[in-house]
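DM from R.C. (forwarded with permission)

"hey, sorry to bug you on a friday — could you get me a structure for this? deadline for the figure draft is monday and I only need the backbone to look sensible"
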Amino acid sequence: MENTKKLSDFLGAHFIYTYANGWKYELYVKNEDTIDYRIHTGMVGGRWVKDQKADIVELTAGIFKLSWTEPTGTDVSLDILPNENKLHGVIFFPKWVHEHPEITVRFQNDFLDLMYESRLKYDTYPKYVVPEFGKITFKKNEGMNNEKVIAVAPYDGMIEEIENGKLTFN
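My reply, with the result:
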C-alpha cells in the first residue's frame, strides 16, 4: 500500500493503529461506503463490527476522511494519512456506552436489537468525547469486499500475527 494518493487506492485498505491513549484498533475499508473493524484494546476492547455504513471521502491527495454513526449512537470521524502512517480520530461516545461499555463488547451485528434497546434505555448525554492522534503500525490493501479480513473476534496476539505476516487474508 505504497503512496496512496486517491480514493481508488484507499478502498480495500486494512490498517492497524494505536491512538496516543494506547487504544488499539483495526479498520478495513471494505468499499466506497462500508467498513469493518475490530477494537483490540481500550474502553470497548473486544468489540467487532462488519458492514458499517460510512461516508468515505478523499479530502485531498493522500488524505482521507471516514465518518459514521453506529447503532449504539456512537459517532466517529477519522482523518487518515496513510502515506505518513498517522491519523486523527474523534469518537463521540453516548453517556450510556461510557458507563456500560461491556454491553457493546461483542460482535455487534448479532446484537443490533440490544444496541438499539440500550440506546433508548440509558442516557445519551453528555457525550464522552475522545479526540486522539494515532500511529498506523500496519497497512495493506486486501482488495475490496474481502470477507476474510474482519471475520473473527479480536484475540490476544492477533495484532502481532497480522503485523508479522503470520495471519493473512488472501
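R.C.: lifesaver. The chain has one domain: 7-145.
me: no worries. The chain is about 15% helix and 40% strand.
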